[in-house]
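Notes to self after the Tuesday call (sharing in case useful).
The group wants a holo model before anyone commits to mutagenesis around the pocket. I volunteered. Ligand is magnesium ion. Logging inputs and output together so the record is complete.
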Amino acid sequence: NLTQRLAKVVKTMRGEARLTEANTAEMLREVRMALLEADVALPAVREFIAKVKEKAMGEEVISSLTPGQALVGVVQREMAALMGADLGPEATQLSFAQQPPAIILMAGLQGVGKTTTVGKLAKYLKEEKKKKVLTVSADVYRPAAIAQLKTVSGQAGADFFPSTPQDKPVDIALAALDWAKKHYHDVLIVDTAGRLGIDEEMMKEIAAVHGAIKPIETLFVVDAMLGQDAINTAKAFNDALPLTGIVLTKLDGDSRGGAALSVRHVTGKPIKFAGVSEKLDGLEAFDPSRMASRVLGMGDIMALVEEARKGVDAKAAADLAAKVKSGGKFDMNDFKAQLGQMKKMGGMASLVDKLPAQFQQAAGGANMDQADKQVRRMVGIIDSMTPAERAKPDLIKANRKRRIAAGAGVQVQEVNRMLNQFEQMQTMMKKLSGGGMMKMMRAMKG
Ligand code: GDP
Ligand code: MG
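Result:
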Protein backbone atom coordinates (compact mmCIF):
# COMPACT_ATOMS: atom_id res chain seq x y z
CA ASN A 1 0.00 0.00 0.00
CA LEU A 2 1.17 3.44 -0.96
CA THR A 3 1.06 4.90 2.53
CA GLN A 4 3.34 2.24 3.91
CA ARG A 5 5.70 2.58 0.98
CA LEU A 6 5.89 6.34 1.27
CA ALA A 7 6.18 6.23 5.05
CA LYS A 8 9.42 4.40 4.58
CA VAL A 9 10.71 6.72 1.93
CA VAL A 10 9.70 9.99 3.60
CA LYS A 11 11.61 8.80 6.63
CA THR A 12 14.76 7.94 4.76
CA MET A 13 14.66 11.25 2.93
CA ARG A 14 14.40 13.32 6.05
CA GLY A 15 17.36 15.58 6.64
CA GLU A 16 18.34 16.06 3.02
CA ALA A 17 18.57 19.61 1.84
CA ARG A 18 16.78 19.45 -1.49
CA LEU A 19 15.35 17.21 -4.14
CA THR A 20 17.73 15.55 -6.53
CA GLU A 21 17.48 12.96 -9.24
CA ALA A 22 19.01 10.52 -6.77
CA ASN A 23 16.93 11.12 -3.66
CA THR A 24 13.60 11.17 -5.49
CA ALA A 25 14.23 8.04 -7.51
CA GLU A 26 13.12 5.66 -4.79
CA MET A 27 10.02 7.64 -3.89
CA LEU A 28 9.00 7.99 -7.52
CA ARG A 29 9.42 4.25 -7.91
CA GLU A 30 6.98 3.77 -5.04
CA VAL A 31 4.47 6.21 -6.55
CA ARG A 32 4.75 4.33 -9.82
CA MET A 33 4.12 1.00 -8.14
CA ALA A 34 1.14 2.39 -6.27
CA LEU A 35 -0.42 3.73 -9.47
CA LEU A 36 0.01 0.41 -11.19
CA GLU A 37 -1.62 -1.24 -8.20
CA ALA A 38 -4.51 1.22 -8.57
CA ASP A 39 -4.91 -0.16 -12.11
CA VAL A 40 -3.72 2.92 -13.93
CA ALA A 41 -2.51 1.97 -17.41
CA LEU A 42 1.25 2.04 -17.90
CA PRO A 43 1.48 4.89 -20.46
CA ALA A 44 -0.54 7.13 -18.13
CA VAL A 45 1.71 6.20 -15.24
CA ARG A 46 4.83 7.00 -17.26
CA GLU A 47 3.53 10.38 -18.31
CA PHE A 48 2.57 11.24 -14.76
CA ILE A 49 5.90 10.25 -13.25
CA ALA A 50 7.78 12.25 -15.90
CA LYS A 51 5.66 15.30 -15.11
CA VAL A 52 6.24 15.01 -11.38
CA LYS A 53 9.96 14.59 -11.93
CA GLU A 54 10.13 17.66 -14.11
CA LYS A 55 8.26 19.76 -11.53
CA ALA A 56 10.15 18.36 -8.57
CA MET A 57 13.53 19.31 -9.96
CA GLY A 58 12.33 22.89 -10.40
CA GLU A 59 12.15 25.84 -8.04
CA GLU A 60 8.97 24.76 -6.24
CA VAL A 61 10.79 22.48 -3.84
CA ILE A 62 13.44 24.89 -2.63
CA SER A 63 11.42 26.73 0.00
CA SER A 64 9.87 23.57 1.38
CA LEU A 65 10.44 22.12 4.77
CA THR A 66 11.80 18.73 3.82
CA PRO A 67 12.38 16.99 0.52
CA GLY A 68 9.87 14.28 1.38
CA GLN A 69 7.07 16.76 1.98
CA ALA A 70 8.01 18.72 -1.09
CA LEU A 71 7.78 15.68 -3.29
CA VAL A 72 4.49 14.52 -1.79
CA GLY A 73 3.18 18.01 -2.40
CA VAL A 74 4.26 17.92 -6.03
CA VAL A 75 2.75 14.46 -6.51
CA GLN A 76 -0.60 15.56 -5.13
CA ARG A 77 -0.67 18.83 -7.06
CA GLU A 78 0.21 17.17 -10.33
CA MET A 79 -2.34 14.44 -9.81
CA ALA A 80 -5.08 16.96 -9.10
CA ALA A 81 -4.04 18.93 -12.18
CA LEU A 82 -4.13 15.81 -14.29
CA MET A 83 -7.62 15.04 -12.99
CA GLY A 84 -8.67 18.47 -14.20
CA ALA A 85 -8.20 20.80 -11.21
CA ASP A 86 -6.60 23.40 -13.49
CA LEU A 87 -9.62 23.41 -15.80
CA GLY A 88 -11.71 25.08 -13.11
CA PRO A 89 -15.24 24.24 -11.95
CA GLU A 90 -16.79 25.25 -15.30
CA ALA A 91 -15.27 22.07 -16.75
CA THR A 92 -17.94 20.03 -15.02
CA GLN A 93 -20.79 22.08 -16.47
CA LEU A 94 -22.86 20.88 -19.39
CA SER A 95 -23.20 23.11 -22.43
CA PHE A 96 -26.64 24.09 -23.68
CA ALA A 97 -27.33 24.96 -27.28
CA GLN A 98 -28.38 28.49 -28.19
CA GLN A 99 -31.20 26.91 -30.11
CA PRO A 100 -32.97 24.22 -28.04
CA PRO A 101 -32.99 21.34 -27.73
CA ALA A 102 -29.48 20.78 -26.43
CA ILE A 103 -28.61 17.23 -27.47
CA ILE A 104 -26.59 14.94 -25.21
CA LEU A 105 -25.27 11.70 -26.74
CA MET A 106 -24.18 8.89 -24.44
CA ALA A 107 -21.34 6.57 -25.49
CA GLY A 108 -19.59 3.66 -23.84
CA LEU A 109 -19.37 -0.10 -23.47
CA GLN A 110 -22.29 -2.21 -22.28
CA GLY A 111 -22.91 -2.31 -18.57
CA VAL A 112 -20.88 0.77 -17.68
CA GLY A 113 -23.97 2.69 -16.60
CA LYS A 114 -25.10 4.69 -19.65
CA THR A 115 -28.84 4.17 -19.22
CA THR A 116 -28.66 4.77 -15.48
CA THR A 117 -26.69 7.96 -16.13
CA VAL A 118 -29.34 9.16 -18.60
CA GLY A 119 -31.87 8.87 -15.78
CA LYS A 120 -29.56 10.68 -13.37
CA LEU A 121 -28.85 13.47 -15.84
CA ALA A 122 -32.55 13.85 -16.66
CA LYS A 123 -33.38 14.18 -12.98
CA TYR A 124 -30.52 16.64 -12.41
CA LEU A 125 -31.46 18.77 -15.42
CA LYS A 126 -35.12 18.81 -14.50
CA GLU A 127 -34.72 19.50 -10.80
CA GLU A 128 -31.57 21.66 -10.66
CA LYS A 129 -31.68 23.36 -14.04
CA LYS A 130 -35.45 23.45 -14.55
CA LYS A 131 -35.15 21.94 -18.02
CA LYS A 132 -37.79 20.09 -19.98
CA VAL A 133 -36.08 16.83 -20.86
CA LEU A 134 -36.81 14.16 -23.49
CA THR A 135 -34.99 10.81 -23.55
CA VAL A 136 -34.71 8.23 -26.30
CA SER A 137 -33.02 4.85 -26.63
CA ALA A 138 -31.11 3.93 -29.78
CA ASP A 139 -30.26 0.56 -28.25
CA VAL A 140 -32.02 -1.64 -30.80
CA TYR A 141 -30.27 -4.85 -29.80
CA ARG A 142 -31.92 -5.35 -26.46
CA PRO A 143 -35.65 -4.60 -26.07
CA ALA A 144 -35.10 -4.69 -22.31
CA ALA A 145 -32.74 -1.73 -22.66
CA ILE A 146 -35.50 0.41 -24.16
CA ALA A 147 -37.90 -0.59 -21.37
CA GLN A 148 -35.20 0.19 -18.81
CA LEU A 149 -34.80 3.73 -20.18
CA LYS A 150 -38.56 4.23 -20.11
CA THR A 151 -38.61 3.26 -16.44
CA VAL A 152 -35.74 5.52 -15.32
CA SER A 153 -37.09 8.42 -17.39
CA GLY A 154 -40.42 8.09 -15.62
CA GLN A 155 -38.65 8.07 -12.25
CA ALA A 156 -36.70 11.17 -13.24
CA GLY A 157 -39.80 13.01 -14.39
CA ALA A 158 -38.57 13.26 -17.97
CA ASP A 159 -40.51 12.60 -21.16
CA PHE A 160 -39.66 9.40 -23.02
CA PHE A 161 -39.70 8.96 -26.80
CA PRO A 162 -40.56 5.33 -27.61
CA SER A 163 -38.51 3.31 -30.07
CA THR A 164 -38.54 -0.31 -31.26
CA PRO A 165 -35.79 -2.79 -32.17
CA GLN A 166 -37.01 -2.70 -35.79
CA ASP A 167 -35.93 0.94 -36.19
CA LYS A 168 -32.47 2.11 -37.23
CA PRO A 169 -30.52 4.04 -34.59
CA VAL A 170 -30.05 7.09 -36.83
CA ASP A 171 -33.77 7.20 -37.65
CA ILE A 172 -34.70 6.87 -33.98
CA ALA A 173 -32.42 9.75 -33.04
CA LEU A 174 -33.74 12.00 -35.81
CA ALA A 175 -37.39 11.22 -35.00
CA ALA A 176 -36.79 12.02 -31.33
CA LEU A 177 -35.07 15.28 -32.29
CA ASP A 178 -38.02 16.25 -34.43
CA TRP A 179 -40.39 15.48 -31.57
CA ALA A 180 -38.28 17.46 -29.09
CA LYS A 181 -38.31 20.51 -31.37
CA LYS A 182 -42.07 20.36 -31.83
CA HIS A 183 -42.72 19.97 -28.12
CA TYR A 184 -40.23 22.57 -26.92
CA HIS A 185 -37.94 20.30 -24.97
CA ASP A 186 -34.83 22.04 -23.69
CA VAL A 187 -32.73 18.90 -23.70
CA LEU A 188 -32.74 15.62 -25.64
CA ILE A 189 -30.65 12.80 -24.20
CA VAL A 190 -29.86 9.97 -26.61
CA ASP A 191 -28.97 6.62 -25.02
CA THR A 192 -27.07 4.15 -27.19
CA ALA A 193 -26.18 0.48 -27.29
CA GLY A 194 -22.88 -0.73 -25.96
CA ARG A 195 -21.04 -3.93 -26.79
CA LEU A 196 -19.10 -5.95 -24.27
CA GLY A 197 -15.96 -5.11 -26.21
CA ILE A 198 -14.99 -2.52 -28.77
CA ASP A 199 -16.17 -3.40 -32.28
CA GLU A 200 -16.08 -1.64 -35.62
CA GLU A 201 -19.79 -1.85 -36.29
CA MET A 202 -20.71 -0.26 -32.98
CA MET A 203 -18.26 2.59 -33.59
CA LYS A 204 -19.64 3.20 -37.09
CA GLU A 205 -23.19 3.17 -35.78
CA ILE A 206 -22.64 5.67 -33.00
CA ALA A 207 -20.55 7.88 -35.29
CA ALA A 208 -23.47 7.90 -37.74
CA VAL A 209 -25.88 8.90 -34.98
CA HIS A 210 -23.48 11.64 -33.95
CA GLY A 211 -23.23 12.91 -37.51
CA ALA A 212 -27.02 12.98 -37.91
CA ILE A 213 -28.00 14.86 -34.76
CA LYS A 214 -24.78 16.84 -34.02
CA PRO A 215 -24.99 16.77 -30.21
CA ILE A 216 -23.54 19.64 -28.19
CA GLU A 217 -22.38 17.11 -25.58
CA THR A 218 -20.98 13.69 -26.34
CA LEU A 219 -20.33 12.00 -23.02
CA PHE A 220 -18.13 8.97 -22.74
CA VAL A 221 -19.33 6.84 -19.84
CA VAL A 222 -16.66 4.73 -18.18
CA ASP A 223 -16.80 2.34 -15.26
CA ALA A 224 -14.31 3.28 -12.50
CA MET A 225 -13.72 -0.42 -11.85
CA LEU A 226 -12.66 -1.06 -15.43
CA GLY A 227 -8.94 -1.02 -14.66
CA GLN A 228 -6.30 -1.44 -17.36
CA ASP A 229 -8.85 -1.86 -20.17
CA ALA A 230 -10.06 1.68 -19.66
CA ILE A 231 -7.23 3.00 -21.78
CA ASN A 232 -8.09 0.97 -24.90
CA THR A 233 -11.80 1.66 -24.62
CA ALA A 234 -11.22 5.37 -24.17
CA LYS A 235 -8.90 5.44 -27.16
CA ALA A 236 -11.41 3.70 -29.41
CA PHE A 237 -14.26 6.04 -28.48
CA ASN A 238 -12.06 9.13 -28.57
CA ASP A 239 -10.93 8.23 -32.09
CA ALA A 240 -14.46 7.55 -33.30
CA LEU A 241 -16.22 10.53 -31.72
CA PRO A 242 -15.43 14.14 -30.78
CA LEU A 243 -16.04 13.57 -27.06
CA THR A 244 -16.88 16.61 -24.93
CA GLY A 245 -16.70 15.02 -21.53
CA ILE A 246 -16.49 11.90 -19.40
CA VAL A 247 -18.78 10.38 -16.80
CA LEU A 248 -17.00 8.12 -14.33
CA THR A 249 -19.48 5.65 -12.84
CA LYS A 250 -19.47 3.23 -9.92
CA LEU A 251 -17.19 5.35 -7.78
CA ASP A 252 -19.14 4.02 -4.82
CA GLY A 253 -17.29 0.75 -5.34
CA ASP A 254 -13.99 0.10 -3.63
CA SER A 255 -11.77 0.56 -6.67
CA ARG A 256 -9.13 3.26 -6.42
CA GLY A 257 -10.42 4.67 -9.68
CA GLY A 258 -7.20 4.42 -11.63
CA ALA A 259 -9.37 4.40 -14.77
CA ALA A 260 -9.87 8.15 -14.29
CA LEU A 261 -6.18 8.76 -14.86
CA SER A 262 -6.05 6.49 -17.90
CA VAL A 263 -9.06 8.13 -19.51
CA ARG A 264 -7.77 11.64 -18.87
CA HIS A 265 -4.43 10.60 -20.32
CA VAL A 266 -5.98 9.36 -23.55
CA THR A 267 -8.76 11.87 -24.15
CA GLY A 268 -7.67 15.03 -22.37
CA LYS A 269 -11.40 15.70 -21.97
CA PRO A 270 -12.85 16.87 -18.65
CA ILE A 271 -14.48 14.35 -16.34
CA LYS A 272 -17.78 16.11 -15.75
CA PHE A 273 -19.71 13.78 -13.47
CA ALA A 274 -19.16 10.94 -11.07
CA GLY A 275 -21.73 8.19 -10.55
CA VAL A 276 -21.86 7.21 -6.88
CA SER A 277 -24.85 4.88 -6.61
CA GLU A 278 -27.37 2.90 -8.60
CA LYS A 279 -30.08 5.35 -7.61
CA LEU A 280 -31.01 8.35 -9.71
CA ASP A 281 -29.72 10.85 -7.16
CA GLY A 282 -26.29 9.19 -7.26
CA LEU A 283 -24.67 11.74 -9.57
CA GLU A 284 -22.10 14.31 -8.48
CA ALA A 285 -20.06 17.01 -10.16
CA PHE A 286 -16.60 15.54 -10.57
CA ASP A 287 -14.08 16.70 -7.95
CA PRO A 288 -10.49 16.48 -9.28
CA SER A 289 -8.73 16.96 -5.94
CA ARG A 290 -10.80 14.33 -4.21
CA MET A 291 -10.19 11.93 -7.07
CA ALA A 292 -6.46 12.62 -6.92
CA SER A 293 -6.47 11.76 -3.23
CA ARG A 294 -8.40 8.60 -3.90
CA VAL A 295 -6.09 7.32 -6.61
CA LEU A 296 -3.01 8.08 -4.54
CA GLY A 297 -4.42 7.23 -1.11
CA MET A 298 -3.47 10.82 -0.35
CA GLY A 299 -5.49 11.34 2.79
CA ASP A 300 -3.16 8.95 4.51
CA ILE A 301 -0.12 10.49 2.91
CA MET A 302 -0.93 13.97 4.11
CA ALA A 303 -1.29 12.65 7.65
CA LEU A 304 2.07 11.03 7.22
CA VAL A 305 3.72 14.23 6.11
CA GLU A 306 2.17 16.05 9.02
CA GLU A 307 3.67 13.46 11.32
CA ALA A 308 7.07 13.88 9.71
CA ARG A 309 6.76 17.62 10.11
CA LYS A 310 6.19 17.33 13.83
CA GLY A 311 9.35 15.29 14.03
CA VAL A 312 7.80 12.39 15.86
CA ASP A 313 9.37 9.14 14.97
CA ALA A 314 6.29 6.98 15.09
CA LYS A 315 8.27 3.79 14.80
CA ALA A 316 10.45 4.68 17.77
CA ALA A 317 7.32 5.46 19.77
CA ALA A 318 5.72 2.20 18.76
CA ASP A 319 8.88 0.24 19.54
CA LEU A 320 9.10 1.81 22.96
CA ALA A 321 5.42 1.22 23.62
CA ALA A 322 5.83 -2.42 22.65
CA LYS A 323 8.83 -2.74 24.91
CA VAL A 324 7.08 -1.20 27.91
CA LYS A 325 3.99 -3.27 27.29
CA SER A 326 5.90 -6.51 27.07
CA GLY A 327 7.38 -5.76 30.49
CA GLY A 328 10.75 -4.62 29.13
CA LYS A 329 12.62 -2.17 31.29
CA PHE A 330 12.88 1.48 30.34
CA ASP A 331 16.64 2.05 30.31
CA MET A 332 19.08 4.87 29.63
CA ASN A 333 19.08 4.18 25.89
CA ASP A 334 15.32 4.71 25.84
CA PHE A 335 15.72 7.81 27.95
CA LYS A 336 18.25 9.20 25.52
CA ALA A 337 15.93 8.47 22.59
CA GLN A 338 13.13 10.23 24.49
CA LEU A 339 15.30 13.26 25.03
CA GLY A 340 16.12 13.33 21.35
CA GLN A 341 12.41 13.25 20.50
CA MET A 342 11.74 16.07 22.92
CA LYS A 343 14.31 18.25 21.25
CA LYS A 344 12.75 17.56 17.86
CA MET A 345 9.28 18.36 19.13
CA GLY A 346 10.11 21.86 20.31
CA GLY A 347 11.82 21.31 23.62
CA MET A 348 10.74 20.36 27.11
CA ALA A 349 8.81 23.57 27.74
CA SER A 350 6.33 23.02 24.95
CA LEU A 351 6.29 19.33 25.59
CA VAL A 352 5.44 19.45 29.28
CA ASP A 353 2.52 21.76 28.49
CA LYS A 354 1.01 18.97 26.47
CA LEU A 355 1.56 16.19 28.97
CA PRO A 356 -1.38 14.99 31.05
CA ALA A 357 -1.45 16.92 34.34
CA GLN A 358 -0.34 14.01 36.50
CA PHE A 359 2.90 13.75 34.52
CA GLN A 360 3.75 17.44 34.42
CA GLN A 361 5.21 17.33 37.91
CA ALA A 362 7.20 14.22 37.23
CA ALA A 363 8.69 15.79 34.15
CA GLY A 364 10.79 18.19 36.16
CA GLY A 365 8.95 21.05 37.80
CA ALA A 366 9.31 24.76 37.46
CA ASN A 367 11.96 26.00 35.09
CA MET A 368 11.45 24.44 31.73
CA ASP A 369 13.66 26.84 29.80
CA GLN A 370 16.56 25.73 31.90
CA ALA A 371 15.43 22.16 31.45
CA ASP A 372 15.78 22.68 27.73
CA LYS A 373 19.42 23.62 28.14
CA GLN A 374 19.88 20.66 30.41
CA VAL A 375 18.62 18.26 27.83
CA ARG A 376 21.81 18.59 25.84
CA ARG A 377 23.91 18.09 28.97
CA MET A 378 21.84 15.09 29.93
CA VAL A 379 22.50 13.52 26.59
CA GLY A 380 26.20 14.24 27.13
CA ILE A 381 26.06 12.45 30.47
CA ILE A 382 24.35 9.41 28.97
CA ASP A 383 27.00 9.37 26.24
CA SER A 384 29.65 9.07 28.93
CA MET A 385 28.13 5.91 30.31
CA THR A 386 29.23 2.44 29.32
CA PRO A 387 26.72 0.23 27.48
CA ALA A 388 26.34 -1.84 30.66
CA GLU A 389 25.51 1.25 32.69
CA ARG A 390 22.96 2.44 30.16
CA ALA A 391 21.24 -0.91 30.14
CA LYS A 392 21.30 -1.16 33.93
CA PRO A 393 21.55 2.29 35.58
CA ASP A 394 21.39 0.67 39.04
CA LEU A 395 25.08 -0.13 38.55
CA ILE A 396 25.93 3.56 38.79
CA LYS A 397 27.34 4.12 42.27
CA ALA A 398 29.71 6.84 43.59
CA ASN A 399 32.84 5.77 41.66
CA ARG A 400 31.07 5.47 38.36
CA LYS A 401 29.28 8.77 38.93
CA ARG A 402 32.63 10.55 39.30
CA ARG A 403 33.94 8.96 36.13
CA ILE A 404 30.79 9.83 34.15
CA ALA A 405 30.78 13.43 35.44
CA ALA A 406 34.41 13.85 34.41
CA GLY A 407 33.70 12.37 30.99
CA ALA A 408 30.79 14.71 30.38
CA GLY A 409 32.51 17.73 31.88
CA VAL A 410 29.88 18.30 34.55
CA GLN A 411 29.59 18.22 38.35
CA VAL A 412 28.63 15.01 40.12
CA GLN A 413 25.41 16.71 41.36
CA GLU A 414 24.32 17.05 37.79
CA VAL A 415 24.78 13.35 37.22
CA ASN A 416 22.69 12.76 40.32
CA ARG A 417 19.98 15.09 39.11
CA MET A 418 19.91 13.36 35.77
CA LEU A 419 19.64 9.93 37.38
CA ASN A 420 16.80 11.31 39.44
CA GLN A 421 14.91 12.48 36.42
CA PHE A 422 15.56 9.21 34.73
CA GLU A 423 13.99 7.38 37.66
CA GLN A 424 10.94 9.62 37.51
CA MET A 425 10.62 8.93 33.82
CA GLN A 426 11.01 5.22 34.48
CA THR A 427 8.21 5.34 37.05
CA MET A 428 6.04 7.22 34.61
CA MET A 429 6.68 4.60 31.93
CA LYS A 430 5.68 1.83 34.32
CA LYS A 431 2.35 3.56 34.95
CA LEU A 432 1.59 3.70 31.28
CA SER A 433 0.29 0.71 29.44
CA GLY A 434 1.29 0.31 25.82
CA GLY A 435 -1.86 2.11 24.76
CA GLY A 436 -1.25 4.85 27.26
CA MET A 437 2.20 5.37 25.83
CA MET A 438 0.87 5.85 22.35
CA LYS A 439 -1.80 8.16 23.68
CA MET A 440 0.84 10.24 25.39
CA MET A 441 2.97 10.47 22.27
CA ARG A 442 -0.08 11.56 20.34
CA ALA A 443 -0.89 14.16 22.98
CA MET A 444 2.67 15.45 22.67
CA LYS A 445 2.26 15.84 18.94
CA GLY A 446 -0.66 18.15 19.67
P1 GDP B 1 -25.46 0.47 -19.68
O1 GDP B 1 -25.39 -0.89 -20.26
O2 GDP B 1 -24.20 1.24 -19.97
O3 GDP B 1 -26.66 1.22 -20.06
O4 GDP B 1 -25.46 0.30 -18.08
P2 GDP B 1 -26.70 0.39 -17.08
O5 GDP B 1 -27.11 1.82 -16.91
O6 GDP B 1 -27.74 -0.57 -17.49
O7 GDP B 1 -26.01 -0.05 -15.74
C1 GDP B 1 -25.43 -1.32 -15.56
C2 GDP B 1 -25.42 -1.67 -14.09
O8 GDP B 1 -24.59 -0.76 -13.38
C3 GDP B 1 -26.79 -1.53 -13.45
O9 GDP B 1 -26.96 -2.57 -12.53
C4 GDP B 1 -26.73 -0.19 -12.72
O10 GDP B 1 -27.59 -0.16 -11.62
C5 GDP B 1 -25.30 -0.15 -12.32
N1 GDP B 1 -24.78 1.21 -12.14
C6 GDP B 1 -24.77 2.24 -13.01
N2 GDP B 1 -24.19 3.33 -12.49
C7 GDP B 1 -23.81 2.99 -11.24
C8 GDP B 1 -23.12 3.68 -10.17
O11 GDP B 1 -22.72 4.85 -10.26
N3 GDP B 1 -22.90 2.97 -9.03
C9 GDP B 1 -23.30 1.69 -8.90
N4 GDP B 1 -23.05 1.07 -7.76
N5 GDP B 1 -23.92 1.01 -9.86
C10 GDP B 1 -24.17 1.65 -11.03
MG1 MG C 1 -28.13 0.74 -21.46
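Two things stood out.
The chain has three domains: 2-86+299-308, 89-286, 311-445.
Residues 59-64, 353-362, 433-438 have pLDDT under 50 and may be disordered.
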